[in-house]
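Per your request, structure below.
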């Protein structure tokens, strides 16, 4: 009997996962990717001898599917997972405050961290505790108001939202609480902080993403028997009598099933004609940008692996100094989520805004020399997780048998995260493998 022929369009985490699943179930898989590399939105590149990640992607202990994929492709050695949730929170002119969980069962594990969070008044900390308990009971399918509006209704001041709740909302939802969907926000806090004490422990990528995801995935896919076509741009998918043809400008691939694993803005034109009237997500989901600033100082300025900032335009800052550097330089990366304004600004303007902010937040930076300053931008990094977005996110299965959708924008239940991408790939593979 001939093996099921599957074409996976897109070489990000969703496509990699779907291709591996289908191949391991006996399908003959071809993965096509328009770029000359794998990894999708999680990649690194070399600029003037320094390998830069396009973004500072983090994950949590509860991101079990993503962690399993790293083990599967041999990339787990390049990441580091905290033993306990520990976020240093910096503010100009003040001592660092740590949001660190205790070794108690949830939700008691966060009581000490909240009570000791001196960036808020005692009254604000107590009110935040009450709001957290109430948030734990919110239906995560609610998509009718913003997380910020709900927090305000539950006694959270503008200051408390900015200095506490946005610390979690921005990196996970790529929006501030004032704009983000209540349901997705409730999911993040419930899944990552309130249900299990260790769920929110943070994982960071110590090596460049190409070493953790791109190259290991390419090697594993080849070992699994997947045919890779890098630099191959899909321009159309047609279906007739249960068979598919995936076309580029110069070639056509025949398939029994197709997984479309590209960003929602690209996915709309690639669905078969039978589905063209059923893609409200193509434009309706919108996008939210992320900007990263890469700064090399002539000396150490950041004593933490990473830290959050409050009362500052700096959101999160990471120490990304290569292990091979021994001359005292430090490379730090600043991650700016929900960067609607900053992604439009020139590099010179961003330097004028953020280098003084870093000096205010990190006292050693005031006497340090900036050796390099670079900017990376993802203009459409994620879908826009606003109220109403949940109704637009499609499931993996479509009305065309054998044609499945994957990506963080699909209905995974998760926001646009590394975990959501991998889970979507599993779901899509299950749909096409059922053939």
């Amino acid at each position: 009997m001939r093996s099921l022929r599957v074409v996976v369009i897109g070489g990000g985490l969703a496509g990699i996962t779907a291709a591996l699943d289908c191949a391991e179930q006996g399908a003959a898989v071809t993965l096509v990717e328009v770029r000359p590399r794998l990894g999708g939105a999680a990649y690194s590149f070399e600029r003037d001898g320094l390998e830069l990640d396009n973004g500072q992607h983090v994950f949590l202990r509860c991101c079990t599917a993503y962690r399993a994929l790293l083990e599967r492709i041999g990339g787990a050695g390049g990441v580091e997972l905290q033993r306990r949730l520990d976020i240093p929170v910096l503010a100009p002119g003040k001592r660092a405050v740590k949001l660190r969980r205790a070794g108690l069962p949830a939700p008691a594990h966060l009581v000490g961290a909240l009570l000791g969070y001196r960036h808020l008044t005692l009254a604000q900390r107590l009110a935040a505790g009450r709001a957290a308990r109430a948030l734990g009971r919110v239906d995560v399918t609610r998509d009718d108001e913003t997380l910020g509006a709900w927090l305000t209704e539950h006694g959270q001041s503008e200051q408390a939202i900015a200095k506490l709740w946005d610390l979690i909302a921005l990196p996970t939802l790529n929006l501030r609480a004032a704009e983000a969907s209540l349901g997705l926000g409730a999911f993040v806090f419930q899944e990552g902080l309130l249900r299990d004490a260790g769920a929110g422990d943070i994982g960071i990528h110590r090596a460049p993403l190409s070493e953790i995801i791109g190259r290991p995935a390419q090697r594993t896919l080849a070992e699994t028997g997947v045919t890779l076509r890098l630099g191959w741009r899909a321009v159309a998918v047609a279906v007739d009598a249960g068979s598919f043809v995936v076309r580029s400008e110069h070639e056509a691939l025949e398939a029994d099933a197709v997984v479309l694993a590209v960003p929602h803005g690209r996915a709309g034109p690639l669905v078969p004609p039978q589905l063209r009237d059923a893609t409200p997500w193509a434009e309706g989901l919108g996008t939210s940008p992320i900007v990263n600033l890469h700064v090399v100082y002539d000396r150490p300025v950041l004593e933490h692996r990473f830290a959050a900032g409050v009362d500052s335009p700096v959101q999160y800052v990471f120490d990304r100094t290569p292990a091979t550097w021994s001359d005292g330089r430090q490379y730090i990366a600043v991650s700016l989520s929900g960067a609607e304004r900053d992604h439009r600004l020139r590099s010179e303007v961003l330097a004028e805004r953020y280098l003084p902010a870093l000096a205010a937040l990190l006292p050693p930076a005031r006497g340090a020399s900036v050796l390099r300053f670079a900017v990376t931008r993802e203009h459409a990094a994620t879908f826009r997780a606003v109220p109403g977005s949940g109704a637009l996110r499609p499931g993996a299965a479509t009305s065309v048998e054998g044609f499945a959708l994957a990506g963080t924008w699909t209905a995974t239940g998760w926001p646009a995260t590394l975990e959501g991408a991998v889970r979507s790939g599993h779901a899509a593979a299950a749909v096409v493998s059922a053939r």
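The chain has three domains: 5-42+210-285+387-433, 102-199, 287-383.

Regards,
D.
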